[in-house]
Structures are given as structure tokens and as C-alpha cells.
Amino acid sequence: MFGILPEGHSPAGGCVLATCCEYRVMLPNFTIGLNETQFGLVAPPFIRASFKNVLPARKAELALCQGKMFSSKEALDVGLIDDMANTKEEGHAMSTKFLQTFSNVNPAARSPMKQQFRGKDLDELRRNKKKDMENYVKFVTQDHVQKRIGLYLEKLHNKTKK
Question: Is the pLDDT of residue 1 over 70?
Fold first, then answer.
């Protein structure tokens, strides 16, 4: 069982990690999301599945297709995070309190219950891991995709200079 308190912006991998946790709490004035399409990438199927396990299907579809980065408030409103804390200390306390709600739950029952919710996605990940990786590498190494990634990184770099 894991809770997460991102202490900054959580694009891409930070968002994926959050979707794998039981409890997500965030500080205000940060963003979270899967922004891959903004720079020409397609999120792999296992990432899409994890995102869909947290968000309603239509919201997940739109967010992935748009490369949407949610503000902390938007993420709370759509269910991408569970709570918002004003300080890091408050966030840690909220996470601890949530995780303690499982203290009387038998892990031997909780684990198979969780598997019933996420097992099909894990099976698909295992079954298609090699094919998904090959497809991703083939896609991401294309010249036009590399160019888009370069332009996106340049844009981020220029933004930090200002």
C-alpha cells in the first residue's frame, strides 16, 4: 500500500506513479497529468490503463488525447488526486490517516480484491510487454517525433529562462 505526495509538478512519470498509489494528495499551485501528446508521443497501453483506473473513461480519453496537465484543483475535481493539502506536513498527516484506515484490513483479503480490479490490466501488460516496447521504441525514434520532442524541450528551456 502506498500513498503519494508530489512536492512539485507531476507530468508523465510522476503522474503514472501517482495512479499506481492507493492515495494521492497534492499541494496547491502544481500540475499533474500525462502530457505526452503535447510533444508528439503516444502513452503506452499500460499507462493508459493505469490512468483509466483512476479517472472516468471519457475524462481519461480527453486528457490523454489533449496531453492535459491538471492544476491541483482540477485534479481533485476529476478524481486524479484524492485530497489537496496546504503544506507538506499536512499532506503527510492526511496520507498517514488514510493508510491507517486499512490497519484492520487483512492483507490476504485486500490483495486479491485489488487484483480483481486491476488484474486484467496487469495480465495485458505482461502479455504484450515486448510488443508494446517495440512499438514504442519504433514510434519514438522516428525523425518527426524526435523533432517534436526537441521543440518541446526547447520551449521548456526557454520558459525557465524567463
Answer: no
pTM: 0.84
Sign of CA dihedral 7, 17, 153, 84: negative
Q: What CATH number does residue 73 fall under?
A: 3.90.226.10
Question: pLDDT by residue (tens digit) across 142-158?
Answer: 999 999 889 888 888 88
Terminal C-alpha separation, the chain: 40
Domain of residue 116 covers: 3-161
Contacts of 126 (CB under 8 A, 6+ apart): none
Strand 69-71 and strand 31-33: the pairing is antiparallel
| Higher-scoring residue by pLDDT: 122, 68 | 68
Strand order in the sheet with 23-26: 3-4, 23-26, 83-84
- The CB density around residue 124, as the number of other CB atoms within 10 Å, is 14
Q: How many domains does the chain have?
A: 1
Strand order in the sheet with 31-33: 10-11, 31-33, 69-71
In the chain, beta strands by DSSP E: 3-4, 10-11, 23-26, 31-33, 69-71, 83-84
